[in-house]
Amino acid sequence: MRSKKRTVVVAHTPACESEALLAIDPGLGGTGWALFAKGRSVPYQTGVIHCRKATWAWWARANAIAMDLGNTVGIGWHDHAMVVSEFPMQMQSAAGIATQKDSGIYKLAFLVGLIRAEFKYAAFRPVTPQEWKGQLPKDVVIHRIRRSLGLKATQHLGIKTHAWDAVGIGLWARGNKEFWR
After folding, report:
1. Average pLDDT of the residues of the chain
2. Structural domains of the chain, count
3. Does any domain span residue 4?
4. How are beta strands 43-49 and 31-36 bridged, if at all?
5. pTM (two decimals)
6. Is the pLDDT of residue 138 over 80?
7. How far is it, in rounded angstroms, from Cα 141 to Cα 25?
8. Which of 16, 29, 54, 62 could form a disulfide with 111 if both were Cys (CB 3.0 to 4.6 A apart)?
9. Residue 73 belongs to a domain with what CATH number?
10. Three-class DSSP labels, the chain
């Protein structure tokens, strides 16, 4: 049986605009996502996946989030696409160190692995926060997205919480120059 052809991305080059793009900001408290159509540098749909079972073990919540993301985006979407997901890294900030102390970084890496498995036929590119936004705080990211896409477009998309970072990741992946000005 012939295997599907995969694209390997070694360094940052803008995601090919001829392929669909799913940008993901993973988190057990909420996973943001943004879909970009082929040939478009503006998302057409965004959302946040939450696991409604807060009493479940962290790994069960991670499984539920990854499966819900796959079901929300749609099965037929996976094959001819690029998935770009934020990936955890060792952090030096007080918040980052606190996250690492409670094993949060490992739980997040586990979730990213499950998301990768959910989209196994798509090209996959992990990206660290340092790569796509540097030290920008969330309010600056939101401001730049609004400036880049326009207030009307961001209101129409109904971007919420974690989806803001997913849109930012997607704009970074598409090489959107307006986002960085």
Report:
1. 84
2. 1
3. no
4. antiparallel
5. 0.84
6. yes
7. 13
8. 62
9. 3.30.420.10
10. CCCCCCCCCCCCCCCCCCCEEEEEECCCCCEEEEEECCCCCCEEEEEEECCCCCCCCHHHHHHHHHHHHHHHHCHHHHHHEEEEEECCCCCCCHHHHHHHHCCHHHHHHHHHHHHHHHCCCCEEEEECHHHHCCCCCHHHHHHHHHHHHCHHHHHHHCCCHHHHHHHHHHHHHCCCCHHHC
Structure tokens at 23: 């940008």
CB-CB contact of 44 with 35 (8 Å): yes
- Cβ–Cβ < 8 Å for 38, 18: yes
Whole domain around residue 24: which residue ranges?
20-180
Query: What's residue 180's pLDDT?
Result: 64
Residue carrying the six token digits 């990213």: 112
Number of residues that make up the chain: 181
